[in-house]
Amino acid sequence: MKRRIFIGTAVIAVLMTFLVGYLATMRINNASEHAVQQNLLTNAKIIAAEQDEASMRHAADIVAEASGMNVTLILKDGTVWYRQPALASGSPEQNHLEREEVKQAFETGVGIAQRHSTTMDRTMSYVAVTTEDGSMVVRMSIQVDDILAANRQTAWEIFFLLTVCLAGLLVLSWRMTTVIVSPINEITSVAKEYADGQYGRKIRTDYRDEIGVLAHAFNSMSTALVETNETLAADNGKLQAIMEAMTNGVVAVDSDLKVIMTNSAARQVLGIGWSAVGQSLFVATGKQELESFFKRTLEGTNKISEEITLSYGFGVTRQKKILRIRGSRLRQNGVTTGAVAVLEDITELKRLENIRTEFAANVSHELKTPLTSIKGFVETLESGVDDPEHAKRFLHIISSETDRLTRLISDILYVSELESYRHSVPEIVDVLQKASDVVELLSKNAQKKHIDLTLEQDPHHSAFCMGDGDKVQQMLMNLVANGINYTPEGGQVKIQLSSDEKQVKIVVSDTGIGIAEKDIPRLFERFYRVDKGRSRATGGTGLGLAIVKHVVMSMKGDIQVKSEVGKGSSFIVTLPKADKTEA
Fold it and tell me: Is 415 helix (H, G, I), strand (E, B) or coil?
């Protein structure tokens, strides 16, 4: 910009300088030429005013001698009648009728011309006037070479002075351009920084012109932008924090179905990363169902709420997620610019609903069966039974079913207590002692089936854990009782205890009927039985292993199952270890 301004100014200055020089030179030349011609005209009129030839000659001699001018008296036919000063001897006079000034004088009364005279070999200025009677022309002439030379000298001097002035003007123009452009460059530089989001630099405001006003405006704009950006950053930070803290996922796309925003919950649910932003929704997630939902949202006019099922993995690792999605369009100035959806993973909720429904059905069934049996035998007794032995057997069955109901209700309440997380204060539990108590309590049951019930412990390590002693014993009781119930006569049930620096390991194994691999994932569900008929025959409630799982989970432990049909099962429980010195 600075260069363009300077070049433009310089071109104008040069043109103006040459124009002024040219006009001044022309003015000087014209003025000097006019002065000479006026002088010639005045003298010519003085001579032409004489009345007779003698007087004219006398006047011509006086004027020529006094002014140094040449006087030529020319007759109407162009013949030179008198000349002063006279020509050199031997020089013939030429006819002057066709001379420009003479011809003009005879036609208009006055003739003026300037040309190189071959006779005088000089540049001459001529003025011719006619006498009053028109019979003769008085021509005055003077050589103007010296005047023209002086004019040329003056012109050179003028051009020299103008050149000096031009140089000074160009220097001044450069300085002025620098003064003008420098603040503009500064403002431009700062404006670029503002465009890049850097608002710390301020513009000098010591200018007392429009530049100063502009600088003040830019500085005010900078302050306003900083405040606005800080407000926006704070608001965006709050919004981002809120979005990231949300338990539900949020996904936003533009009108081309490209992802423009996700939160952590959405990334976790959909299995995507930060790189998804900017990608098409289908490329980022690979889920056609999700893309179809957003298409319907963009094309619709109302909010949409649906449940969709997404599949992840292949083969045995294939899993399904059930999402409840609520979508709405994003609009700006009446134009749809995108869509946003809130994703809620309800897979676990649906699973719990199914478990709850199944639990209610199972409880109803489990309660209905003994109650139906009790009612049937009561009605039989009420109708009268003659044989006391039959009556006694019926009463025994009623008592047995009542005990079964009591155990069932007790287990249901126990499971509810475990699920309510109303835990007792943790204490150091001697797992070996609890295992010994269980072996002692269930030894008679094992002996009835000739089952070898044993307890083994690593003698080099203690077996203490932090938890509830009663719950640990209940857990062991359920596992060992299951082993006895599902092991044929003559089999073996074994409790093995071991530990390391961090955990206590409890293994309850049997040589029973085993569990099919397909049943293992559901083994700890309430009322789930591998062999329903056999379970009821042994007096089980279907809640034993569910109680075991809840006890282990409440103590931050883990339980695994290894089993082979026809060979037996092993339940491996690991619990955090406690140091006996903490007691």
Answer: helix
Query: How many helices (H) does the chain have, and how many strands (E)?
Result: 14, 17
- pLDDT tens digits for range 36-58: 889 989 999 988 888 788 888 88
For the chain, the straight-line distance linking the first and the last C-alpha, in angstroms and rounded, comes to 87
DSSP reduced 3-state for 110: strand
- The answer to whether 84 touches 62, Cβ cutoff 8 Å, is no
- On the 0-12 / 13-18 / 19+ scale of CB atoms within 10 A, 397 is middle
193 pLDDT band, cuts 50/70/90, is confident
Query: For residue 534, is pLDDT > 50?
Result: no
* Angstrom distances, CA of residue 238 to CA of 242, 263, 561: 6, 13, 47
Residues contacting 172, CB < 8 A, separation 6+: none
The whole model's pTM is what?
0.46
| Cis preceding-peptide flag for 426 (omega within 30 of 0) | no
- Over residues 521-542, the mean pLDDT reads 64
Distance CA 334, CA 370 (A): 67
Residues near 9 by beta carbon (within 8 Å), at least 6 away in sequence: 170, 173, 177
What are the DSSP E strand ranges found in 500-565? 503-510, 558-564
Token representation of residue 349: 């909720």
| Rounded-to-integer distance, Cα 187 and Cα 165, Å | 33
Ramachandran region, residue 343 (left: φ > 0; alpha: ψ -120 to 50; beta: rest): beta
Which of 194-217 are b and which e, b meaning 16 or more Cβ less than 10 Å from the residue's Cβ?
beeeebeeebeeeeeeebeebbee
Least confident of 210-224, 357-371, 556-570: 357-371
The answer, yes or no, to whether residue 491 has pLDDT greater than 90, is yes
Residue 198 gets which letter from DSSP?
-
Which amino acid, residue 50? E
- Residue listed under structure tokens 């926006």: 232
Report the C-alpha gap between 374 and 311 in whole angstroms.
48
Paired tokens of 470: 């009663």
Residue with tokens 């006895």: 484
Length of the chain: 583
Alpha-carbon dihedral angle through residues 548, 552, 555, 558, given to the nearest 10 degrees: 180
> What tens digit of pLDDT does each residue of 321-360 get?
899 999 999 988 888 899 999 999 888 888 878 877 776 7
Q: Which residues lie across from 75 on neighbouring strands? A: 136
503 near 576, Cβ under 8 Å? yes
Output DSSP code: residue 567. T
Q: What is the C-alpha separation between 162 and 174, in angstroms, rounded?
A: 18
pLDDT above 70 (res 415): no
